[in-house]
Amino acid sequence: MAISLSVVLLLAVIMVVLIRGGSLKAGPALVAVLFGFFLASTGMAPAINRFLNSLAESINQISF
After folding, report:
1. Comparing C-alpha atoms, which of 49, 64, 61 is closest to residue 3?
2. Is 57 helix (H, G, I), strand (E, B) or coil?
3. Buried (b) or exposed (e) across 13-36, using 16+ Cβ within 10 A?
4. What does the pLDDT read at residue 61?
5. Backbone Cα Rg of the chain
6. Alpha helix (H) ranges present in 1-64?
7. pTM greater than 0.85 (yes/no)
């Protein structure tokens, strides 16, 4: 839960920065948000969630 909330906030900040910088227009940003919203209700959502969780765990295990 904490990881998914952090990812959502991070992606929201990135999207706002891209919109304000002119790299991303509001229309395509809205389409991307709606795509993610509807993708979350499909059968692929658990697989995507598992992939992102395993990616976060792999990054977490990296030691410098």
Report:
1. 49
2. helix
3. eeeeeeeeeeebeeeeeeeeeeee
4. 92
5. 14
6. 2-21, 26-39, 45-60
7. no
Number of neighbours of residue 38 by Cβ within 10 angstroms? 9
Structure tokens at 32: 């991307």
**Two structure tokens written together for 39:** 């993708």
Q: What is the pLDDT of residue 4?
A: 62
Across the 64 residues of the chain, what is the mean pLDDT of every consecutive 10-residue run?
A: 70 87 88 85 88 89 88
46 to each of 9, 27, 37, 41, 52, how far by Cα in Å?
Answer: 20, 28, 14, 10, 10
Residue 56's Cβ-count burial label (10 Å; 0-12, 13-18, 19+) is: middle
